[in-house]
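User: I'm curious whether this sequence folds into something compact or stays loose and floppy. Could you predict its structure so I can see for myself?
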Amino acid sequence: MEDYKRNAILVLKDGTYFFGRFVGHKGETWGEVVFNTGMTGYQEILTDPSYHRQIVVMTYPHIGNYGVNSFDVESNSPKVSGFVMREVSNYPSNSDAEKSIREYFIENKIVAIDRVDTRKLTRHIRDNGAMMGIISHKVDRVDRLKEEVKELPDMVGLDLSVEVSTKESYTLIDVEDPIYNIVALDYGVKWSILRLFAERKAKVTIMPYTSSVDDVIKMKPDGIFISNGPGDPGATLHAVRLIKDLIGKFPIFGICLGHQLISIALGGKTYKLKFGHHALNHPVKNLKTSKIEITSQNHGFAVDPNTLPKDVEISHINLNDKSVEGIICEPKNIMAVQYHPEAGPGPHDSRYLFDDFISMIK
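Assistant: Here's the prediction. I'll summarize afterward.
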């Protein structure tokens, strides 16, 4: 009977709380509570560094159906602070499954809960915005948890890239007879991005956030990639300073946080979205081709179009809220997108952007 008891609680910063059941590590954790509407891709979500310091609520009601394997990962370990579901699957059915998602939660000490009214929780976040929350086993101490969650720092002002960036330079994939040499500045890079560069015969050296412009120049790169990652881009000033020094010296491509950091380095500003974009099906319009791309997205901040300088062209927009989804600065050989063209998980409509960057550095 213990398995069916409501032995966990999620308390939000506004005092709202939801009971649930531990299906992973029975501990306490905190983070910004966001929802993801993807029906699949939970393993990539769990290991995506951009979710560092976030508690992810899955809106699809049944999670874990196809189990967990050792290759559908976006980093070397889980990065989410917590995971919330309506119902976890105990019996995966997939030829690639190596273990159940519950086994994965327990092995990696992920604080995960189910039996939560995720529909109600999602609507609450949608209406009131993403906010900090605590998952705890202290189900009988609601008032105390309400006070504790009020003391947590909001996402605005947090530089979290330093917590997920590599400490030393490395190469993830050995490319035989590489044609291009790319430096990836790591603020929380996803491995699927590196795989797509490797498919295009590019050797990618991943460098830490502490890298200087001289460190980068010594690598003699053909181009620079600015990675995705967690936190507030407006607080990630060390990255902005480095990007400013690199602009004009090399072709530059950025994704997600990288897009925001590049925009700031060019003179733009960012703002916090109410509940962010965390999904696999956001429609984005390519303003040059007028084609619509279905995209994978994971960000809580966006670029203010009114702050971009005149030599920066908006290349893509989100058709749901008209937010900026991409920029091009042709005079400085810069391109960047807010969404995730590599998908991982998600549709592959936008993978041509990797080819566009290769064309830029030829």
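Summary: The first strand starts at residue 8 and ends at 12. The first helix runs from residue 42 to 47.
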